[in-house]
Amino acid sequence: MTAGRGSRVAVALAAMVLAGCNEGGSGSGSGSTTTTVSASGTNVAAVTAGFGALGPSGGYANGIWTSVIVCVPGSTTECDTIPDVLVDTGSVGLRVLSSALTVSLPGVTDSSGNVLQECIQFADLSYMWGPVATARIGFTGTGETALQVPGQAANSGVPIQIIAASPSATVPSSCLAAPATPGMTVDRNTLESLGGNGILGVGTIPQDCGEACATASYYQYYICPNNECSVPNVPVARQVWNPVAALSSSDNNGVLITLPAVAAGGAPSAVGSLIFGIGTQSNNGIGAAQVYETDGYGNFPKVVLNGATYASPNNGSYIDSGSTDIFFSDAHSLASTGIVECSGNLAGYYCPASVIPFTATVFGANNVSGPVQFNIANALSLFSPGYGAFNDVGGDSGTGPSTDDVDLGLPFFLGRSVYVGIAGSNATYPNGYWAFQGAGAASSTAAVSTETGIAIGPPKTPVGVR
């Protein structure tokens, strides 16, 4: 789920349907048991890669889930513990289904008392709409809390979005720039349509819209008195914030996600850790991981794969735990490799006759490059046992060279330690960065980037299941 291109929801729902047909399947071989890797410390939250709240009968494979504690600002008793929240390195901010909340959170309002609303439309043309409220945010099993936005009053809370089950205002047409896709859920405001109880966006920027929304009318935030919506300028402190950037501890400069490797045929699930902070404690040192600074759009400046170059921003490529698969290129462009697209309800996935290895070369804005190696297997065969975690499932990212990119989704995280550094937290990498090491990651070599004049522009859409 990420900024910029919208949702892989159509593909995820296809997997959901197929998984439902195989409920109860146990599979065989070395992938038939859940794999686990864990860390310890007060800055560690558990995460599970798998089907999530809906299970194999209704969930989608390769989600990564954790629990979040949401409290009324300033309170430690008026709280809800919300399980099955998607951990998304490709978006920013906490977004929670209203159905998952029992506490009443104060809304973010303008000078006339109108509650700020937020609207996001995904690439499949479904959307998410609801009010912005403030909350104290914590994480199960940790001592980490986000009490207020930096620079704001103590215990004033951090802005989050409540995904409205019953919207108080009609969603404005300026948000829904295109009609909903026939057959797709329109409003992702239920557990069944979203797949989890919310989204925890822990990407590379502190807030989801920044100066683009603070200094200009941007079709993302609205106020709607008497059901008449308009687009206000929204100060940075009132926008939905990356909870990590608002942590009261020194662990507010990023996160480290560790997940175990899984067998080639997948596993029922994979249990790992979401570790807060980078280089702040003994369990989150960056060590030998290669750092790749993002560009001003939050992308790799360039990725080269199978002889094609994907350059940001038009073909911006990225690392995104909220994407269920490795999405790259298109079946026509990859035909010479043996890649073919699946048919039926798995259209969009790749179904090669045999496992195909790929190597992408990724470039950072800090003038480094290095290889990323991955395999793509037949999605139909992978999903048949009913497993929930795979490291070798992939699909198309576009329909041709003009729309293709490389999206290193959840399979990329399996067997690796992946760091996400927040923009502004490290003077050496001002745009924010990714760093990684672990199984499948070849050592990187320094290279002079051919990219020049990295452009700074409006942020990408803050949430969108790619």
Terminal-residue CA separation: 5 Å
Q: Globular, elongated, flat, extended or rod-shaped: what is the shape?
A: globular
CATH superfamily heading of the domain at 34-246: Acid Proteases
**Average pLDDT, to the nearest integer?**
86
Question: What is the count of β-strands?
Answer: 25
Low-confidence stretches: 2-7, 9-30, 441-466
The CATH architecture of the domain at 34-246: Beta Barrel
The largest β sheet comes out as:
6 strands, mixed, barrel
The CATH topology of the domain at 34-246 corresponds to: Cathepsin D, subunit A, domain 1
For the largest sheet, list the strands in their spatial order.
3-4-10-5-9-7
What's the helical proportion of residues?
under 10%
Strand content: 25-35%
Summed up, the helix count is 6
Q: Radius of gyration from the CA trace?
A: 21 Å
Helical/strand content category: mainly beta
Question: According to CATH, what is the class of the domain at 34-246?
Answer: Mainly Beta
Q: Which features would summarize this protein structure in a list?
A:
466 residues; Cathepsin D, subunit A, domain 1; 5-stranded antiparallel beta sheet; disordered N terminus
Overall description:
This protein is mainly β and 466 residues long. It has a domain at 34-246: Acid Proteases (Cathepsin D, subunit A, domain 1, Beta Barrel), CATH 2.40.70.10. It is 7% helix and 29% strand. It is built from six helices and 25 strands. Strand 3 (63-71) and strand 4 (79-88) form a beta hairpin. The relative contact order is 0.20.
